UniProtKB/TrEMBL annotation:
Residues 6-160 form the Spermatogenesis-associated protein 20-like TRX domain. It comes from the Bacteria. GO terms for biological process: carbohydrate metabolic process. It holds the Pfam family Thioredox_DsbH. This is Spermatogenesis-associated protein 20-like TRX domain-containing protein. InterPro entries: 6-hairpin_glycosidase_sf, Ssp411, Ssp411-like_TRX, Thioredoxin-like_sf. The lineage of its organism: Bacteria, Bacillati, Actinomycetota, Actinomycetes, Mycobacteriales.
Length: 666
């Protein structure tokens, strides 16, 4: 492609393709693009965003579609556009730089770099007039004060490298007492009135809720359970949850879960499905059961494509945020008639003044309706009417890690909700992702329309997919998922583990593209960190793998979890998934092996229903898996063998005995 042309039309990222018609001469991040900057002796203007980002669209419309702005960008810079979801390694490096230089981060991210990738100025969103001034100032500084730019970029790169050392050692051991203290600290931060933690904006604390539920199962803590249920109920009844079609938005802009930032992400909904399914299985709560079922339907019907799951639904429709979802009382009456319209306005908290913008309201469901048949009729009619409104765009990119999260969630929801079709969806997704994204033994990050991208997978991809496949193996007994899952763990150990420090991990492989620094972020955020995800995968592998390999996985799991002790001790809200893995670890983790015919065994069904979060459950004939070696039925009856770590109970043959062995009331 000739220099000066926009190169994004053939990208495997829908976000990049959205910019293919810009007058900006966008490049993708390639060695050739960096070489062009060196040849022209101009800085790189790096713009990072993602398809569902509202302010990314705003900046695109204001600046990147503007001929004057594009002319200034093209004249003085090599312009590179990056999808943060496709290249999280680049996003991590330059987000660290943006936060270090400005004190805050976010998207769109706008960074100016030397031709070799060192940042010297970073920011986020700029309105057109400010952006034009910034472009002129940076270009002038590059031409006239190059020495200052080089000094600044050297200093920033050095500071970034010093920040990339990961966690120091010396944390307390991962024992029940550490988990208890971490949970106690988390509970002190709860918003007991509105649910959740901290002030607005509020993000769904998915992994933290799962950790609290696991803590309740281990300790019987009513406080932990009540906290999880309070937050989960507030979210499920609030505007952050789509009361008509199911599925959660990315976050709430207020502290009461009323007004969402309307984008819907695969990763949020997969993580929340796992928690709500676990909550439903453990307590039988009807709200948990309904939300889990509707969220699973949202994943399969609204994000499913070619047996895999796409990345997100946009926040905007026709350039207006929330256009698809918000209602006025008049609009309800127009669709439903006077009586049902007034009833629906009361039920869904749609007011004359509105809870959103321009007198519109986002639907909530503060209480369940008394008339369920009327509710279903009204909801069906509103959803049908909504389908004729402008619809949000969908980012059809398939991300390996997020599909791994979805496989795990769907497999666990299939058990919790007794819906075998969800296990079928998880299995089909696994087949498709492994078949497309595993290329010559190495995993790729993403694909689009059946074409796999060039970007290498990172640690979270290997770990999340490995956990998904090992979970699928437990649910199906199919050894192909065991073998592939263990192979991914082996690749992670070979290419992502820090050879200098046991238990520490890099987010990029040792043979990946060399950047200004090699990212290694152990803190959980909107998604679990790669390090906490690989801790879970190793924990499973240590008990599912053949004995000759299991010891290596167990040692790596222990070392990895030990690195999280400092997070759990000092910043437990930044370690939700770490805490969930730790809660499983301090119980053993629990393993339940049922000698049986898996297709007919009521004892195996009971084991899956009764098992605490993080437990490992397998079923089959004697010798069919590592946990069933030398274990058979007892006097012709199916038998369950319960172990905690390396210590095992006597086998039991009834559901009641199994519940007693697990300490679960029946």
């Amino acid at each position: 492609m000739s220099p000066g042309a926009n190169e994004l039309g053939g990208a495997t990222s829908p976000y990049l393709r959205q910019h293919a018609d810009n007058p900006v001469h966008w490049r993708q991040w390639t060695p050739e693009a960096l070489a062009e900057a060196a040849r022209r002796d101009v800085p790189i203007l790096l713009s990072i965003g993602y398809a569902a980002c509202h302010w990314c669209h705003v900046m695109a419309h204001e600046s990147f579609e503007d001929d004057d702005v594009a002319a200034a960008m093209n004249a003085d810079f090599v312009c590179i556009k990056v999808d943060r979801e496709e290249r999280p390694d680049l996003d991590a490096v330059y987000m660290n730089a943006t936060v270090a230089l400005t004190g805050q981060g976010g998207w769109p991210m706008t960074c100016f770099l030397t031709p070799d990738g060192r940042p010297f100025f970073c920011g986020t969103y700029y309105p057109k007039p400010n952006f034009l001034q910034l472009l002129a100032a940076v270009a002038q500084t590059w031409r006239e004060r190059r020495g200052e730019v080089e000094d600044a970029s050297d200093r920033i790169a050095g500071e970034l490298r010093s920040m990339a050392g990961g966690l120091p050692g010396g944390g307390p051991p991962v024992r029940p007492e550490l988990c208890d203290a971490a949970v106690a600290a988390v509970l002190q931060d709860e918003d007991t009135v509105r649910g959740g933690f901290g002030a607005a904006p509020k993000f769904p604390p998915s992994a933290l809720l799962e950790a609290l539920l696991r803590h309740h199962e281990r300790t019987g803590s009513a406080h932990a359970l009540a906290t999880a249920e309070r937050t989960a109920t507030a979210m499920a009844r609030g505007g952050i949850y789509d009361q008509l079609a199911g599925g959660f938005a990315r976050y709430s802009v207020d502290d009461s879960w009323v007004v969402p930032h309307f984008e819907k992400m695969l990763y949020d909904n997969a993580l929340l499905l796992r928690f709500y399914a676990h909550w439903a299985r453990r307590t039988g709560d009807p709200l948990a059961h309904r939300i889990a079922g509707e969220t699973a339907r949202f994943l399969v019907d609204d994000l499913g494509a070619d047996r895999m799951f796409t990345s997100s639904l946009d926040a905007d429709a026709d350039g207006v945020e929330g256009l698809t979802y918000a209602w006025t009382p008049t609009q309800l009456r127009d669709v439903l008639g006077e009586d049902d319209g007034r009833w629906a306005a009361t039920l869904f908290a749609v007011t004359a003044t509105g809870t959103f913008e321009h007198g519109t309201s986002v639907l909530q469901l503060p209480v369940d309706p008394d008339d369920h048949a009327r509710y279903e009729r009204v909801r069906t009619a509103l959803l049908a009417a909504r389908s004729h409104r402008p619809q949000p765009g969908r980012d059809d990119k398939v991300v390996t890690a997020w599909n791994g999260l979805a496989i795990t969630a769907l497999a666990e929801a299939a058990v919790a909700l007794e819906r075998p079709e969800l296990l079928g969806a998880a299995t089909e997704c696994a087949r498709a992702v492994v078949g497309l994204h595993l290329v010559d033994g190495r995993l790729r990050r993403a694909s689009l329309g059946g074409r796999v991208g060039e970007s290498a997978a990172i640690l979270e991809d290997h770990a999340a997919l490995a956990t998904g496949l090992l979970t699928l193996h437990q649910a199906t007994g199919d050894n192909r998922w065991l073998h592939t899952g263990l192979a991914l763990v082996d690749v992670a150990l070979a290419h992502f583990a820090d050879p200098q420090r046991d238990g520490h991990w890099f987010d990029t492989a040792d043979d990946a593209e060399a950047l200004v620094l090699r990212p290694a972020d152990p803190f959980d955020g909107a998604t679990p960190s790669g390090a906490s995800l690989i801790a879970e995968a190793l924990q499973l592998a240590a008990h599912l793998a053949p004995a000759a390999r299991a010891g290596r996985y167990a040692a790596a799991a222990d070392a990895t979890l030990a690195t999280a002790a400092l997070i759990l001790d000092r910043a437990p809200r930044s370690g939700g998934h770490w805490l969930a893995v730790a809660e499983a670890a301090v119980r053993g983790p629990i393993q339940i092996a049922v000698a049986c015919d898996p297709a007919r065994s009521e004892l195996l069904r009971a084991a899956r229903a009764l098992a605490p979060g993080g437990a490992i459950v397998v079923g089959g004939a004697a010798g069919s898996s590592e946990l069933l070696l030398d274990r058979d039925r007892v006097d012709g009856a199916d038998a369950a063998y319960v172990c905690r770590g390396r210590v095992c109970d006597l086998p039991v043959t009834t559901s009641r005995e199994l519940a007693a062995a697990l300490g679960v009331p029946v």
